[in-house]
Amino acid sequence: MVSATNRFFRNFDFILLGTVILLIIFGIMMIASATRDVASLADRVNSQIIYTFVGIAVVIIVAAVDYRLLTSTWLWIYGVIVLILGAVGALGTEGEAGAQSWLNLGVAGFQPSELAKMLLIIVLAQQLSNSGEKIKQLSGVIRSLGFIAIPVFFIFIQPDLGITILVLVTWFVMVWGAGMRWQHIALFAVVAIIMMPILWSQMEDYQKSRITTFINLDADPDAGFNIRQAMTAIGNGGLLGRGYMQGSQSQLRYLRVRHTDFIFAVIAEELGFVGSLIVLILIFIVLARILRAARLANDTPGVLICYGVATVIFFQTVVSVGMNVRVLPVTGLTLPFVSSGGSSLVTLLFGIGLVESIVMRHNPREW
């Protein structure tokens, strides 16, 4: 009989975890550059390092737990999601962006919507698996959408439009992966278009401003200023960049929220096209390893979990880079594993732990 330790190291995807750690180290370096000599952001680097160690521990713990144990408790997990998101409405505190999306745990703040986006992947994976062939019927698709309706509503009213859209996109990819028919995809596309005016009417003024500013930078000169600074920073970088900690827009503080939303602009200015490309290649490797895990998975929930985690990382990357180069509106989604943010980092590493758990158990005869 193969020992548990040998089984763990035999199937554990060290390439996946190693690539993620490289991205995190790179991110810490860029956060250090973006926050240099800024007293109000002096703790960002140390905080990111602490959360990195916490997150790696989470990877090991979650990987050691059979993911099938988690999917078997999917209804309990769903209840926890609704509970913590509901608690935000009653007890939540405002974050830097003004949204009431944080819970104060005494020692540190915690953003429940970040955890919810990952826990919902477990819920959806098992719920869609239970649906079986019914997911090819419209009633099955609507039932699945109903499961995320309450969490999505709580996240939207915080308000957090970025994670709201992220959760909906993740649901769409997972339900498509489970077998949703093309006719239903077209139907939901039409419904989404019809619902846009209603969604617009319920959005906060600052959210509307982000969209109007994307269309016309002069619509909101203050918000437009930062987008222009990001574009200038990226243009300044050229092929090889101006050098680490040598970017004018970041070091002279023209570029705001450069340690979170606009960290890609800092990378592009200081390390140029080459440095930016290296980051994107590393993220591509992470996605490729997660999709490899999906191919190795023994069951439908395992496959769908991998699809969900890959979607979160891919969508956040596309949106984060897109808003830096002004092909998408600013939404507040961070660049995975690179941007500053403890809740985001730990929950992403939780997702990596889920993928590792699936990879480790792809040969059932060993377990």
Multimeric state: single chain
Would you tell me the structural class of the helices and strands? mainly alpha
Q: Secondary-structure element sequence?
A: HHHHHEEEHHHHHHHHHH
Low-confidence stretches: none
Q: Major β-sheet, in short?
A: 3 strands, antiparallel
Total number of helices? 15
Distance between the termini: 10 Å
Round the mean pLDDT to the nearest integer and report it.
87
Shape: globular
**Beta-strand content:** under 5%
- Strand order in the largest sheet: 1-2-3
Task: Please describe what this structure looks like.
- The chain has helices at residues 4-11, 14-34, 44-64, 67-72, 74-91, 112-131, 138-156, 161-177, 182-202, 205-215, 221-237, 248-251, 263-296, 300-324, 342-360; strands at residues 93-94, 100-104, 109-110.
- With 367 residues, it is mainly α.
- The protein has one domain (4-366).
- The protein has a three-stranded antiparallel β-sheet with strand order 1-2-3, with helices on one face.
- A hairpin with a 4-residue loop joins strand 2 (100-104) and strand 3.
- Helix 5 (74-91) runs antiparallel to helix 6.
- The chain is globular.
- The model has no long low-confidence stretch (mean pLDDT 87).
